[in-house]
Automatic annotation (TrEMBL):
SUPFAM superfamilies: UDP-Glycosyltransferase/glycogen phosphorylase (SSF53756). This is Glycosyltransferase family 1 protein. PANTHER family: SULFOQUINOVOSYL TRANSFERASE SQD2. Gene3D superfamilies: Glycogen Phosphorylase B. Keywords: Transferase. Residues 198-359 form the Glycosyl transferase family domain. It comes from the Bacteria. GO terms for molecular function: glycosyltransferase activity. It comes from Anaerobutyricum soehngenii. The keyword Transferase applies.
Amino acid sequence: MEKTKILYLIYSLNAGGIESLCMNILDNIDLTRFQIDFAVVKEKNTEQFYDVKVKSYGMKIFAVGDLRHGTAHKYLSTRKDIYNLIKKEKYDVVHIHCGHWDKFPDAISAKLCGVNKIIIHSHNGQLTRDTKLYRIRCMLQKVIKQFYPFIATDFFSCSDLASQWAFPSRVIKAGKVVYIKNGIDLNRFKYSDELRTKYRHKFDFKDEFVVGHIGRMSEQKNHEFLIDIFNEIVKKKSNSKLLLVGEGELENQIKSKVSRLNLLDKVVFLGTTSEIPGVLAAIDVFVFPSRFEGLPVVGIEAQAMGVPVFASDKISNDVKITEAWHTISLEKSKEDWAKIILKTNLLRANEKCRKNVEDAGFDIRDTTKKISNIYLEGRENEH
């Protein structure tokens, strides 16, 4: 049987949770049976964080959309490019890694081009709040998601919140949503004192209390509040440091706030890195005050490493799988957050947590097997 040709529609190949899951799948899927191409919204001839890795597997990356003009032109040109790509390459599967309303035309394109399997995969439980357009976009989401069952063949979701956001209730009640756990490579996320010593030395941490965060610097991740929380921690524990991993559109704004609060000597901006296990080994706590999430991959990774995680109540409860996870209401003040973090027993339970993650089904090998079987449905009898 010929390889099953799959197209991943994904916003970018920069470092991020959805991208990380896609790379984990790529690392573990049987590439003698599957060809996975990526359609990415970016300028042609530009390179993003995961480009080298994707190409090393012999997979293709297609830059779609004309980013030289305004938002409307960018959106329409992206939809046109995706239609032409699907029509030309004749994919067996189109896997849309987003449940937002604005990807609906891509599902229609796949349907018009005769794609056998069209998957809508919801990774988030909300849209980024735009003061001007947020309500309009939410209204469009409520309306357009009603039409997904007429176009898509499969519905994937990482959590109940993500399902409720992306799919109509009749699809959920009928049991048509397949829950895909955001699996990780448990062999990589294994804590050791040696790893901690190595990366504490690399980041020049000595006896400091290190708060960590990994995530794109965007409105969703709530870095402004994170900096406020850290500022309160410093007032109570002066030898504290904050290690920030990630980049994004709000990076300059966040750096300005750090400067205003006189925290420049306390905050380390690491940028993007592939050394996430080392980062998680080096820090003492992970603070995660997101405004919304689906089921964050980094939350699973942190728990597998036994890092105490303090997360907002806006993150799906599905991610709480170990005793290392602590939920705090986003309604609580920065002072409350700092107090709760500092009074909690911060001892790691590394091997126990890692075993909990494995037992909960978050091993990427299990995730990949489940997805592979769905990709192959309907092709078993070919040839």
